[in-house]
Request: fold
Amino acid sequence: MRKGRKARQASDAAPARKVDYRNLKNPFPQMKAFSDDHIATMHEAALDMLERLGIKVLLPEARDAFRKAGAKVDESTEMVFIGREIVQAALASAPKSIPVAGGARDRDIVLELGNLVFQPGAGAPHASDRIKGRRPGTWEDYQDLTRLTQHFDVLHMVPPLVEPQDIPMHLRHYATMDAQLRLTDKVPFVFSRGTPQVEQSFEMLAGFRGLSDDAFHAGSQCYTIINTNSPRTIDIPMAQGLIDFAKAGQVSIVTPFTLMGAMAPITVAGAITLSHTEALAAITLTQITREGAPVCYGTFTSNVDMKSGAPVFGTPEHFRASLAAGQLARLIGLPWRSASGSAANSNDVQAANETQFGTWGCLMAGATVVIHAAGWLEGGLTVSYEKLITDIEVLQMVAELCAAGETGGADLGLDAIEDVQPGGHFFGTPHTMARYQTEFYEPLVADYANFGTWTERGETDATTRATGIWQDILAQPSPIKPDDNAMGQLQDYIAKATAAGGAAPVS
Amino acid sequence: MRKGRKARQASDAAPARKVDYRNLKNPFPQMKAFSDDHIATMHEAALDMLERLGIKVLLPEARDAFRKAGAKVDESTEMVFIGREIVQAALASAPKSIPVAGGARDRDIVLELGNLVFQPGAGAPHASDRIKGRRPGTWEDYQDLTRLTQHFDVLHMVPPLVEPQDIPMHLRHYATMDAQLRLTDKVPFVFSRGTPQVEQSFEMLAGFRGLSDDAFHAGSQCYTIINTNSPRTIDIPMAQGLIDFAKAGQVSIVTPFTLMGAMAPITVAGAITLSHTEALAAITLTQITREGAPVCYGTFTSNVDMKSGAPVFGTPEHFRASLAAGQLARLIGLPWRSASGSAANSNDVQAANETQFGTWGCLMAGATVVIHAAGWLEGGLTVSYEKLITDIEVLQMVAELCAAGETGGADLGLDAIEDVQPGGHFFGTPHTMARYQTEFYEPLVADYANFGTWTERGETDATTRATGIWQDILAQPSPIKPDDNAMGQLQDYIAKATAAGGAAPVS
Reply:
């Protein structure tokens, strides 16, 4: 096809199409899992449970904070009973909009309802790819996956993709902060593994960005994820994290991880009510620590396979749980995170379908932050390099829909329709020629060759092609050029802290 | 996990869960591609084009019908200029709700806005599976794929899955009608390949169902798909099909197949405006043939890859085209069909992601009938047995969301939450025990084994597992037991008609 070949030559020379995937607004209508009345009942039940049944808080400092805020505390059982007025005050003071600084102004994000932020899979003990197979995550994997995260604009925050298990726990936070600042300029992550590691992470980040203590505390520069221990427990590092991040003005993303039928009631309504209860307690702890501290509501509620007890993701129940959590988030008005994911063991059709299904649940639930949106296999035990790439294709297609107003427009092409007679075609019309390089999404992994050509080229499937894509990206030098002085200062800090014995995690 | 094993034993013995996938209402909020004003402009532009630019109608009988209805006809160019009042009268008389009879009352469907009907991939010249590879479609494939379509309640109509190329064209309609009536009780399909084949197909169907001519004409028993020839042409078999089906009270699903940048303008707005124009002409032909004739609005608009000219599906542009068509369908109030699909060459992650992405476009567009929702590869050149199975998993998960009101409920499980102390679990609570066999979707293809078990079992991917699933279904005898007399009468009819030379298609 003549115009087709012209198009290819031109676009090979100078790809003219550039759609902004960085600042996404969620354009999808929001779907309800339950009536507004039911949602109000769930919220009321959560408030009642916190007041009457209480929540177990393992950290004495946190119980003390709750007591000072007016909650009843039973030290013998470590149970905290939080009056609804305390929770409601916390919901009133929690900010509805949270700016978070990346390493460059065009990487800053704002967490608020209506915005849409994607993260790849986080926290996996293993990494896998088609070359080296599945193995415990390493420092090399952490860096490579962080670089891949940097490469794609549709990923907006850096999560702890895999655990670099070849680095001892008391030194791991140095390595991960070093990699995040050296290889990305997106919003970085800090694990809540006790005050010593958190404080050192803040110091490294503030130092690198040239921020005084006051400046660092005045605006959010990083985030952590807080998982409660369902049912109804906040453990020591999580409580400490909520306090430390709140004091420092840094973002806690509160995420009870509740599996229906296991650590939560088997119904979506029940599991989400429990999740909401725990989230409210955690949010309250941030606000009684520092009024107005940045905190993001969240849920990660899915079901277990009742035949094996295994957690599963991207199921209808997971989808409905996201919808219900979204309704509760809108009720309290806070930005919130949800999650996609897959239980599949390889980057196959099951993996693709589960992750995309879970992602649509998040999108139609109005999630602000969608975590595990790319690369996550085995219910989080592995991040796959290939799945990262193939899921990013889906996220980019979603981002195209977010940006459609800019790229598509409502141009009817009536002149073109008038010009082309019955039996003709539109390949060569001025209307087409003016747009053919920029009108359509250009795929990352999809192969549009016909069967004959595809066969001649070796019948590669999308997963195989994905290997070539991540290899090509990693073969290039990192595009991030950190300031030499800042980097030197960071290395000095790490060398001294390492020499001083590092900082063990608190559990 | 103790309860898990119990659950498995119990559910192996007597699967208690049964969700009705047969009569689906679309629960998804509908999304707009354009403002209501833009949609009104597109509709006005379509009316204006039909009146002023006209449409080419190759069938003299159809031009004659248009002329009698008041349209201007130029016989030398075969162009028909349809005044807007003629189109508007047709839109007023087209029924908004179309009951269509299956072979059993619990397979009847109603085509109207709000209902949701799925069809697998249709019209492919090739079939493929992992055992026999890709080959021209055969009579065996047609029957096998029809049986698989029968097996899954989430598929509601029988399409012409593959062309049985080993049966001559002048006899093919006997074979396909025989297979549909022998192997399924779902709504059957008739190709519009000229009056002789259509009339014989009606006779076979009416005879088999024991319906007099009057009874057959009084209610819809089958359907056809009418593709216009974009831009702005209705060819002879298509026009004849519209007339024949309208006269007989059978359903035409009107589907301009417009590829943006090829046979339609490159913009979504332009392509959908052209598609709408053509659809309005076809709908009008049905209504001037028989007022109130059952006709379904439709579109199948996607883009081409501007590098190769190849049609692509499940893209952001395809998604947006579905949304726009849905807005136009709601404007005119008619039930409508959209389509999913994939351009991938094998049942890989690309194939899964494209089909699911396209399906969500249809769902959020409020499509009544979603065609090519399972099994369709290579932009329709192949129906894959394995992709049929893996896509059905997605459709079943969607159907679970449609049925969530029945299965999930708003049960908060507050007693269970109160009973389970911090650190406990919900596996054994009465709330869980009462529901564990019925609360969650049971997957068709998904494997929830952990990595170790999955590896021991041979690391099968979803596509490989799908092979076993379709083989198991086809290894069972067909559950359909057609009436012996009706079947005998049909065979007699076919034998006589075959002896008489069959019926050649008209083109």
Remarks:
- The first strand of chain B starts at residue 24 and ends at 25.
